[in-house]
Each structure stands twice: as structure tokens, then as C-alpha cells.
Amino acid sequence: MNLKDIITPLTVWKQAAKEPWTIKNPLTERPGADNYRGFHQNDFDKCIGCGSCEEICQNAAIDLVQVEGQESKDGNSGLRPKIDYGRCCWCALCVDICPTGALTMSNEYTWISDNPDDFRFVPGSDKTKWQNDEKGYKRDEKIALLDFDRIDMDELHPENRDKSFIEIVKGYNKEQAIKEADRCLECGLCTATCPAHMDIPAYIAAIREDDIDNAFRILYETNPLPEICGRICTHRCEDACALHHNGEALAIRWLKRYIADQIPAEKYAEVLGTKHLADDKLDQKVAIIGAGPSGLSAAYYLAIMGYQVKIFEALPHSGGMMRYGIPEYRLPYDQIDKDIDYIMSLGVEIQFNTRIGKDITIDQLHADFDSVYAGTGLHLGRSTRIQGSDHDKVYFATDLLREVALGHEIDVAKKIVVIGGGNVAMDITRTLARLQNQAYGKVDVVATSLETEDIMPADREEIVEAREEKAIIDPGWGPKEIEIKNEQLKGLHAVRCLSVFDETGSFSPKFDENQKKFFEADMIVESIGQGMDLSYISEELKVGLKFDPRGRIKVNEDFQSDLKWLFIGGDIIQGPDVIHGIANGHIAAKAIDKYLNGNKEKS
Amino acid sequence: MIKNSESKYKDYVADRSKYPQEEDGKAIIDLDSHKFTKIWQGPQHPGVTGNMSVELIVNGDEIVDAKTRVGYLHRGFEKLMERRRYIQCFPIVCRICVPEPDTNEYCVSAAMEELAGIEIPEKAKWLRTLNLEMSRVTSFLMWAGGQAGSLGMNTIPQWTVGMRDFWLDLFEEMTGGRVYHMYMIPGGVRKDLPEGFRDRVRAQIIQTKELLVDVERSFFNNAIVKSRLIGLGHIPKEMISEYGITGPNARACGVENDIRITNPYLKYPELELEMITGTESDAYERAKLRYRELHQSLNLISQILDKMPEGGEIQAKLPNVLHWKIPAGQTYKRAESTRGEHGFYMVSDGTKYPRRIYARGASYTHAISVLEKLACNITISDLAALMVSLHTCPPEIER
User: Fold this and answer.
1) Which of A351, A561, B162, B337 lies 20 to 30 A from A167 at CA?
2) In chain B, what residues touch A146 (CB-CB under 8 Å)?
3) Do A37 and B177 touch (CB under 8 A)?
4) Which residue is closest to B193 within chain A, CA to CA?
């Protein structure tokens, strides 16, 4: 045995004199690292209850539960994650996936309790000492498990579109659509928010699977106008989209359009399985007033239930506001026809140029049909009623849009001012800009609204595109007076609008009279909202109906009025927009079926 | 092999010819003869390296026959992953091995990246290499404690496992977790280095090297260690390929087999890295080789810290992980763990879920067939030292 090997180990004796490395817990504090994956925190102001954390958790440690004080609303399920620390493995995938960044982890790692139930807790709701700790694991900005950037949509270049009414948006191709569909979180907040409760995650999943026929069938379960909605829907679903909080919302509307675009009109009946539907009809007849979205929706669902449906339309074409209110560059007429022709192919009859109350009375309809659905829409313009607004060069936007759609000539002025900041105002502004371009080769149209640009009700893309087409958007002005000299319209006097709504949220604009502006014009268009025309409802019938303070007829949740045979929906009840009309029509169709055949045995 | 005349295994050859022979792989041993006794080492025994046990048949204190028995640790990770989305696999695989989880994370991520055709950013490659080398250091430190502890020297484990905890502190800073780092995800890594991290690692390297001087003095230059380890568990060179032995166990007898050099991955080609080999693979030689590789890893970390750029992307763009589908295909990705070749075989069938994931750990060989062979003719008291000298890790056997 080597003597060296006996002595050398003894030379490490000095280790005995060293300070021990152990710490005296809890006397010595030892916080987790800045980046430590400790106990969860949840910021309820940011959390939308989308359930992505629950979906990604590979231990099934997260359940979404109802929490006191958290209400369900558009884009927020009101549910919050409850975490079971008997299952959690602290991988923080839930933190990395959280689309709003609400769920994080603190660097706290000790928690003592003799009650096992304590360790199933709702971070953010149950009081924990680490809820407001700033340190701990947060999602790194450089990593993304989700795709927050929307696939760009091809559009016509402003120079190629500002003289014509050719459709601007070109639509996704297959590759783009599948890529966009891949971004979906399948949280379903969109479905809850959509007035028609379309099963959006399901049809988007079908796009991912490239099963367009199935996607198309899913669309028709809740919406018989997909080509139309795929272009001009007000897409509340996208406002509710979970991706919207840290990036761009999923392009749900364009995806819907993609599905409908893939199915040619002649294959509709085959794909939807309605080839022989028109052969066998029930005896009962339903009359529908107005061939707009809500009337068409009701007609479709009644038709597939077997009812004989007849629509009465005052104008020479079907579509209502979709044709007469929305310019062709946003919604081409052939696409409207594609959807409506299919509905008509199911045996739905439309009688054009027939105004109820004038050509036929509503009592006559009541006598001839078993039930009546009215979806007559908002076709009357609303005036600012300022001085000079009765001049004959002051128009309503709805009237002008209708004239354009009917193909009538409009006397387009060289200098135009549009009053209004909604989508209809943008529609008429951009329509007039095109007409000016066609007539004079240049654009001189100004749109002004009470609301400042950040709160303008029009869609952001409408404002941007209007500007691309050289229209001027000058928001934040309240119209005061229209100047008329020698019966000639000179322009609009306006003052700075400071606020539109008061603290309670009611409409009560406040102005600064010292900031003035004069908009020179020889034509003014008012686009500040639309009104309804209920003149077709006779005075005798009105006695049996109830009205709310805003003049709308009161209906129950099935859109049935106090006259049991009369159902009413669409813009005159809810909205105004196409998707509410479609939703109302669908619900009313089911209610009419219940009203007419509710007690009968159904095979 | 250093021949030490004092070593009790100086002429050790695993040979049980004087005992009853095997028939159909089973030893014919008559326990009723009272010549032999059957005892179990494990599963709860300080002398096993984890949740496994060795069924021993002994004659006196000499082992006649040894069988590795597992079944105490089966968590079904491979099967679990067939029911998980691809992104949900990385929190699972790290749990296959507690002392060195990162090799699992790397292999499974690399396999997914290869099948999905994802190229990860340069910075992510550097960070992964750093992470892997740091995990080699922690694994070797734990082994050093185990090897000394298996000989009844309970001071060295206090030092090395304590030192390992300082490395875990660094892991905590870097990844957010001490033991299960869950740092490498498909596409890259989850975090860049925190501020001042490189300096703290450099200081830690110095501190570790200081400690290792004392470990060397008290362990390698120790008469007791030499007398017990030299010759113990000698692996003849011809056993290497026959048994599929990899890692330090194979290199100790001169086989040049280090995946970091022979099949380099990540940033290893850009690092100065020499193959470390020994001459005769016995427990002492293997210990010395691991000690040298521990220093090698420390030097590699220094190199990485010097060469790694600041800033840069850390993750490649992934598709939405909730619907991520990987095209059908199969691959085998491997990396050099402290125990040998660690690999993952992955089959995808084009759906959201992996069709099959198979984890290959070096211990499957080392703790079953090799251990059973080498345990013959040694004494019960040396079995623990043999097991640690093969650096066996039961979780790799049972995934």
C-alpha cells in the first residue's frame, strides 16, 4: 500500500473549517429566481376565460369555473381557470399559450396548509400573498406558441378600384385559408358572441382538414347567406376573438367567404342534401314581408321544414339593404344572387314590386296565410334637422345608395360633404368618390362625424380604404348650419365636438363653439342613422301590439308579437346589421314552426 | 488497468464456472442445499441507484447470480405521449431522468424539428449546448457523490451534491426550474440568459474546480478507494460491441465513442473538444474518466460562454401548437449523456399526436445485462460501487 495514498486524503481537512452552505429556513429568506416557475397568478382584468390554458395543460390540472363577480359578456366567457396543484407539473405551458398574457407565475414556492382543498385554487380570485408579485415566470416576448399575425388579404390597388365598382377584396386561396384557419384557438368566444351563434370553430376546423363540403354544411346550420356574410358581416366574432388582445383577430369573415366561394351554385343542393326538398311540402303557408336578410333567413329555414313560403318585396330585386344599402364593390350583386337563388330553388316564392300596406294589406296576408313574418328593415333616412337641411341638394345616404343600386343616374356634385361616421357614411362617401372620379376625374368628398377617429363607429378598414381612394375623413365636428345663398347650397358650418356621450353613456354631445370650421360644398349627404317605416301595419292592428319607447314593436324571445300570428325581426327589432337579421329570421322560423305545428307529432 | 497488488479484484474475471450453470438462461441453484442464499438489494436500499432492485444469489458474501428486477417506476411516458399533442411532450420527457433531464428534452425536440422540417435559430443552438453541458456537470457531480457514498465515504457526497445545488441555482435562473428545466421546446428554447448570468457561471466554474481538487485528493488518491475499485467490474474490450456499451463505460477501455465528436450536433463542431479515453474499463478507470469529462464539460461551458453571441432569436416560428401536425415519418435523434448514448426514436403519422416515441437510455444495457454479468464473483459490499461505476439510472429502463 502506497503511503502517499493514505496521507493525501488527509490534506483536505481545511474543508472542515468552511462555512456550511445550508441556509436556515425560514430565518434566511431564499426567494425563487426572477424567472422561477412558482405559484400561478391571474390578472382578471386581462383574462377572458378563453380556456386555452385548460386546453394545453397536459396534466388536465386546469378547469374553467365560474367565479363570483365575473360576468359573461361578449369576448369574455366569465369563467376563470382553477388549478389543481395535485396535478400541475409547473411546466408553464399555460402561461406561454395565454393569448392575453393574463396568466403568469410568481416566484413564490412555499405554501403550507393542512387543508388539501386549498391546493385547488383560482389564481386571481382566492387571496394569495403572491398574486401581485412582480417576479416570476412570464411569457418571453421572443417565443410564440400561437400565431398572432393575420394572413394578408389581397385587395385591388386603390388606383385600380377608385373609378369602378369591382369587388376590392380578392378572397383567400386554399393555402392562405388553411394557414389562417390554423391560427384558431377553438375557444368558442366567437360562437357565443355571434348573434346567429354560428359554429365558427367547427367550420374553421373543417377548413384546416380541407373538408369544404362539411364546412359549408356547418355554415348553413345557422346562416343561409354565407356568400353575403362572408363579405360584409359586421364580424362581432372577430372583435371577440382571443387573438385580438395581443395581435390580429382571426379573419373569420374571410374564411367564411372562402368556404362559400369554393362551392359552385349548381352544387349547393347536392352538398346540402336538399335536392328533393321542394317536392314535398306541408299545407301550411307563411308570408314574409321583405326579401332582406332576416326575411330570407326565415324563408330558408321554413322552406327546409317543409312550409310553403312566399316573400313580398316592395323593390324590384331581392336582398333588401344588402343590395340597396351596400355598394357593389363590397358585395357584388352576383354573390347576393348566388345565395338567394339557392333559397328560391327550395320552393320559396318572391313577389316583387309589391308593397304591403299599399298593394296588399297586411290583413289580407293574415287571411291568406297561416303566419306572417315581417322583416322590413330601416330604409328611411334620418335628418340632422339643422337649418338648411331641407334644401333639395341635401340627401339621405340610404336614398342615394338605393338609387345607385337601381342603376339610376345621380346628379353628382363636384364638392360633397357627408355627415356621419358609420359604415353607411363610409359606403356613400366611397360610392360618391367613385362617381366623382367617373364624372370629373377627381375626388372632392369630405366625410365628417361627431365622433373623433378613435371612436368612429365605422370599421377601421373602411376609413383606411376611403382615404386610399382620396376621400377626406375629417372627424370630430358637429354640424351647425347649412349655408344657403340665393337658394344655392354653399356648405356646412361645423363646431368642434368635445364629447359625444355623457358619463352614463347616453348620447349628449358637447361642443366648443369657439372652434369653427366651414366645409364648402354644393351637395350634402346625411348619414346619421336610419329609421323604420311601419306604415304597413294598420291602425287596427297597432291596437293589439305593444311598442317600446323607441317606437319598436315589442316581441318575445321568439320574435313573436302580441298578435300571435305576426312575427317580427331584423333591423326593426335588433341590430342594425345583416347577422342579427339572419339570427332573428332563424329563431322566428323555429318559433313559427312551433306555433303552427308545435302540438303535432313530428315524424 | 492500473494493477494494484492490494486490490482484491486484481485478477478479477467474471467467472462462475465453479457454481451451477445456467440452463435456458436460468441458473440451476438449489436453495435447499443451504449453500446458497437469495437476497434482494433494493428497491429501497441506499446501495441501489434508484427504484430498481437486484435479486442476488450469494454464496457466503460472494455473488453467484444477479438479476436486475424493475417494475417500481413504470410511468408509461412513451404511451402517455401518444395521447399528447407534440408541444405537450417536453414536460413529460424531462421526467425520464432526474439527474440529467435535458438530454431528453433535447432529443425529443430535435426529433420533432427534424420531422417537421424546422431549423432552429443559432442562438437557440448555443443555449441548448450550454444547457446540455451544464446538465452533464450536475449529473457528474451527483455521480461523484454516489461513487464515494457507495464506498461508505459520506463526506464527498455532501460536497459534490452541495456544489450541484449551486449549479441548480444557475439552472433556476436560466430556465425557471431547478430540477426539471423544461427549457428546450420544439423550435428553440424558452428564455434568453438573464443579465449577468455568464459571469455567475464563470465564478461557479472556478468554485467547482476548487472543490474538485479536494475531491481528487480525498477520492482518487485514496488507498481505500484504490483497493476497492481497481479491477472491480472490469469490462473487457470485446464486451463493448457485444453488449452495446456506450459512454464513459466504453471509452474507459479505449473505444472512441462520443456522439458529440463522432456525430456532432448543435454547436459542438464549433467547440474544442477532445475524445477522452482510458485503457482498461474497471471501476477506478471509469471514475477517473468521468472526473476528466467533468473538467471537460466545465471547459466547454467556458468556451460556450465566450463564443455565444448576445441577443438573437431564440425560437423558430412554430405553427399554432394546438393544431400542430407533423408530416408522417420516423427519426432517431441521439445525444451524449453522462451515461452514454441517449436517444429518442419517433414515428409520426401525420396527425396531431406522435404515433410512437421510444426513449433509449444507456442504462437499459448497463443496469441489466452488463450489471448482471459483472456482478458475478464480487462481494455484496461492492455491488453498490459497481452499480454506480456503471452510472446506472433505473428511470431510463422504465420510462
Assistant:
1) A351
2) 320-322
3) yes
4) A35
Which residues of B, range 14-33, sit inside 8 Å of A by Cβ?
Answer: none
Confidence of residue A602 (pLDDT cuts 50, 70, 90): very low
pLDDT tens-digit map of B353-367: 999 999 988 888 888
Contact: B217, A34; criterion CB under 8 Å: no
> For the residues A391-414, what does the mean pLDDT come to?
90
List phi, psi (to 5°) of A84: -100, 110
Note the pLDDT tens digit of each residue in A44-59. 889 999 999 999 999 9
Topology of the domain covering B89-325: Cytochrome-c3 Hydrogenase; chain B (1.10.645)
By C-alpha distance, the chain A residue nearest B165 is A21
Nearest CA in chain A to B153: A9
Using a CB–CB cutoff of 8 Å, tell me whether B218 touches chain A: yes
CB-facing half-sphere around the CA of B96: CA atoms within 13 A: 35
Count of CB atoms within 10 A of residue B220's CB?
17
In chain A, list all ranges with CATH 3.50.50.60: 279-379+532-603, 382-531
Q: What is the ipTM, given to two decimal places?
A: 0.85
CA distance A588 to A305: 13
Task: Give start-end residues of each CATH 1.10.1060.10 domain in chain A.
Answer: 146-275
Task: Return the CATH class of domain A40-121.
Answer: alpha beta
Backbone angles phi, psi at A524, to 5 degrees: -130, 135
CATH 3.30.70.3270 domain span(s) along chain A:
40-121
Contact call for B173 and A12, based on CB within 8 A? no
Nearest chain B residue to A143, by CA: B315
Q: If you ran DSSP here, which 8-state letter would residue B235 be given?
A: B
Nearest-neighbour CA in chain A from B91: distance (Å)? 6
